[in-house]
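Is this the right way to post structure tokens for a design question? Let me know if I should format differently. Anyway, here goes:
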């Protein structure tokens, strides 16, 4: 049943690699956090990138049947719930994630219809999208991802870019961290926490705030046209629950990166949480959305 749960075709070959030692790893992201951030993500994503995307999709060479949309690192499926109802025509979404629990949520919660009322179907594929095999995106019309680029290494990013450009399909990659945060009212420790958090994002070779620049360079080097648009979270008293959880994670990562911050960070976090509870704190977390339009290979479905 389309959209009702994980779907697989008999004899289907896996298109992502999953290392043996990863099979029992705990999930990277809790579904509760993904649900909490989904409304802010939906509001932040860059609407201005949709028109050039629609034009490209309407002119895919040899396109027949449903658009084949691959959602990489789909989590609970928020990207599909946001994008599928904004595109016309029948769509078949292929949801990739390493966590079967999240894949189930994504499949069950997937949209059933496109902007024009056409049907939307879904299948799931488990694996780590950081190691896409060359044929992972065969037949893809579009690749999407949300909050993904910044948790890749440069090598993993190049693998992703090669897969997208090899398939000749556009890529809409949203909500990559930009390394800038604005809190109102300001605090003298804001800059130091931000710097430590950004260093944490770059740990072990991850791209963190450098991801969008690296992606632009990689796509452009392969002949793709690239557009980037800001997609900030703008959070106020109505998003107090999200601010609270974001603050705890943001400050916690900064302290993990620089333990010498601990005492001052505990005071900082306590004061910030009090301001949030009183409805006095506003936060802008800057992200960037990227649309890459590779040269068409003529092989898209």
């Amino acid at each position: 049943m389309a959209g009702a749960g994980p779907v697989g075709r008999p004899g289907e070959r896996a298109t992502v690699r999953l290392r043996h030692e990863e099979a029992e790893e705990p999930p990277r992201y809790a579904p509760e956090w993904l649900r909490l951030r989904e409304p802010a993500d939906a509001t932040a994503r860059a609407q201005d990138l949709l028109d050039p995307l629609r034009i490209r999709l309407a002119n895919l060479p040899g396109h027949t049947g449903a658009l084949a949309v691959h959602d990489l690192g789909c989590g609970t499926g928020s990207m599909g719930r946001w994008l599928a109802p904004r595109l016309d025509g029948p769509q078949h979404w292929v949801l990739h994630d390493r966590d079967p629990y999240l894949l189930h949520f994504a499949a069950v919660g997937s949209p059933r219809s496109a902007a024009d009322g056409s049907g939307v179907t879904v299948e799931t594929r488990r694996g780590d999208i950081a190691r896409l095999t060359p044929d992972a995106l065969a037949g893809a019309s579009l690749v999407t991802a949300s909050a993904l680029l910044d948790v890749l290494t440069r090598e993993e990013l190049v693998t992703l870019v090669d897969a997208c450009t090899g398939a000749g399909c556009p890529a809409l990659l949203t909500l990559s961290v930009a390394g800038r945060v604005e809190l109102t009212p300001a605090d003298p420790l804001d800059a130091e926490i931000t710097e430590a958090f950004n260093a944490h994002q770059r740990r072990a070779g991850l791209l963190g705030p450098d991801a969008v620049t690296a992606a632009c360079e990689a796509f452009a080097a392969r002949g793709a046209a690239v557009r980037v648009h800001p997609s900030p979270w703008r959070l106020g008293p109505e998003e107090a629950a999200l601010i609270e959880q974001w603050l705890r994670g943001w400050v916690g990562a900064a302290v993990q990166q620089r333990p010498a911050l601990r005492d001052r960070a505990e005071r900082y976090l306590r004061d910030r949480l009090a301001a949030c509870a009183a409805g006095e704190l506003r936060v802008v977390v800057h992200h960037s959305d990227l649309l890459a339009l590779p040269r068409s290979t003529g092989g898209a479905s």
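Format looks fine. Someone answered above. Worth noting: The chain has nine helices and eight strands. Residues 1-26 have pLDDT under 50 and may be disordered.
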